[in-house]
Amino acid sequence: MISCLKGELFHKSLEKVTILVNGVGYEVFLSTASLEKLPQLGEEVFLYTYTYVREDILTLFGFVDQDEKKMFLLLINVSGVGPKLALSVLSGIRPSDLARAIATKDLGRLTGLSGVGKKTAERLCLDLKDKVGFLAGAEAEFPDLEAGIPAEGSKEKDVISALVNLGYPQSRAHIALAAVKRRFSPESLAEMRVEELIRETLRSLA
Q1: In this structure, are strands 57-63 and 44-54 parallel, antiparallel, or unpaired?
Q2: pLDDT exceeds 80 at position 138
Q3: 3-class secondary-structure state, position 155
Q4: Could you give the domains of the chain?
Q5: Residue 132 has what DSSP assignment?
Q6: Is the alpha carbon torsion for 45, 48, 51, 52 positive or negative?
Q7: Is the C-alpha dihedral spanning 125, 126, 129, 134 positive or negative?
Q8: Which residue would you say has higher pLDDT here, 90 or 156?
Q9: Percent of the chain at pLDDT above 70?
Q10: Could you give the 3-state DSSP secondary structure of residue 80?
Q11: pTM for this entry
Q12: What is the dihedral of CA 96, 100, 103, 106, to 10 degrees?
């Protein structure tokens, strides 16, 4: 299996590139986001890759960073989501934003992506809701999540503790709480009792 490629960017089109490595040209399909980050033709390029093999088909998919590849691998493990659809999804949204949409069950955001209907969106949330928070660098890419980690003794800490006691992963609880904090003004949040804040956070997880 080819896990990465480093060579000359020989050709680039709207959905794929050819990378020349020691005289051999490798055709690699990329998301729009990855294509936009590539250097000029003739320059050296490095891509993480995934080799898709099925019957008589062998296709390479490329990624400019590990997080995009990890999200791609999660997506293709969901029933009904193939490599082409996964790449199409990643062409329309950053991995960190996709992780947030899945964790908070934002069906509106998900169904707005090319090729994703309501059933597929619901399946993504069901299958991946407890997995997307463990992407490498997830906290760094979720600025409001990182900022939302509560201080000792705060109401937010009580909410996170309650959700963890109910069986929710801590990372998902933080993401859901961050979603609630985006929906309400600081004044409204300050007036909320812990029980009310827990109830609103559970709605984000529903």
Answers
A1: antiparallel
A2: no
A3: helix
A4: 4-63 (2.40.50.140), 66-139 (1.10.150.20), 143-205 (no CATH)
A5: G
A6: negative
A7: negative
A8: 90
A9: 89
A10: coil
A11: 0.68
A12: -140
